[in-house]
Amino acid sequence: MQLGVLSRTYHLSQIILENNNSEEDVIKYYSSFKDFFSSEVIPNVLFIDDTLINFDSIKKEIRQVKKKSSEVQLVAISNANDIDYADALIDCGFDFYLLNNDFFFKRLQKCLNSVRHNFFQLHASTEISDIIKGDSEEIKKVFEVIKKASTTKINVNITGETGTGKELVAQAIHKQSTRNQNPFIAVNIAAIPKDLIESELFGHEEGAFTGATKRRLGKFEEAKNGTLFLDEIGELSLDLQTKLLRVLQENEVTRIGSNEVIKTDIRLVTATHKNLRNEVFENKFREDLYYRLLGLPLNIPPLRERKGDILNLAELFIEEACIYNKITPIKKLHADAQRKLVTYHFPGNVRQLKSLIELSVIISDFKTIRASDLLIENEEIEDISLKKERTLEEYNIEIIEYFLKKYKGKVNFVSDKLEMSKSKIYKLIQEKKLSKY
Ligand SMILES: Nc1ncnc2c1ncn2[C@@H]1O[C@H](COP(=O)(O)OP(=O)(O)OP(=O)(O)O)[C@@H](O)[C@H]1O
């Protein structure tokens, strides 16, 4: 990475050089803005000493720096322990503010780590296979649909169990599309309190409701010319479904408390682990919105149905975890661990595999990860139930009992998870077929 230091003293450049932990970085020193603008080299990060910060001209200079390269990250270094001063610099366009006191070196390291992280994010590959790992036939079919979606503006509806990589696929569609220079905004409807969803999506004006102390842009506006990913769309209430449908038909939004109509140009990608068609049958989801959102349907199979990806992904996660934890050499998977992984059914899919591996990297004592290092929760329950011989109905009852226990008797949750009607579960309870309830 190219580091630039804009300072009247060469000394600052020396400090940064001495405390920088990456040998691949190159430092370039400039004594004035004029010197910087006349240089051919464009650094990835520019440190500016506060002897060179002049509030009358700094905004204009920063605009010129960003014009020269929109990617350059700006760091102000100052002796002033003054929050208002730091705020004013950030308002002028600086990305970081570093106080030059006893803790400077520590802060410099942290700042350089953030700068590097931003740099790699910006330059991350847009190739689908670099974003989504796996080479099973099933995942290759997903890649094909992503490619088709990327070349058009069509809405995409992604289905798949939890942790299968729905958000990752939405990101890949965005990165592959012509919108990739514009924002990718992800919203998880299930994670937002119900009474805040409308304002989160469509924004509000100051004073529009109690607590609305400032104007706030909604996610539709934030995603301007980019991609809006609405995860768990099945959780949207019927009245908000009506509002969403209107926004999609008119391509315009109105903030709560405003009459101003704002044009929107976004690609919508939605995801759900629910069967939306069933929700339509049960009158929980508007049919017209369902067809509007459906666009190009993309289903990501659960990990247990693409077993060919398990070991590839496991090796990738081992490598990432070893690098992150500075463990060398990179650990290997013992044959017994490989067997355990490929025979497990992964209810939490890739997310579960990733956390399982991250933990095994830490707890394994040797260079090899053994089966005993893979701590799979409820492993015995699964094993025992498959070893005994039973009828299909007995299996079903055992599964429902297992989920009722897991979700503390909440029939709503169990019916969602098993995609089974609540009435059927209540009937089994009434008939006392479920021994524990
Ligand atoms: N094919 C893959 N290659 C690499 N990482 C993956 C892959 N699939 C999933 N992951 C990782 O697994 C985790 C879960 O993925 P993601 O959040 O996209 O799943 P999701 O289906 O959106 O989950 P949820 O339904 O719970 O929101 C993330 O850390 C993601 O990076």
From TrEMBL:
InterPro entries: AAA+_ATPase, AAA_lid_NorR, CheY-like_superfamily, P-loop_NTPase, Sigma_54_int. Residues 132-362 form the Sigma-54 factor interaction domain. The keyword ATP-binding applies. One of its GO terms (biological process) is regulation of DNA-templated transcription. It holds the Pfam family AAA_lid_14. GO terms for molecular function: ATP binding. SUPFAM superfamilies: CheY-like (SSF52172), P-loop containing nucleoside triphosphate hydrolases (SSF52540). Keywords: ATP-binding, Nucleotide-binding. PROSITE patterns: SIGMA54_INTERACT_4 (PS50045). Signal peptide: none annotated. This is Sigma-54-dependent Fis family transcriptional regulator.
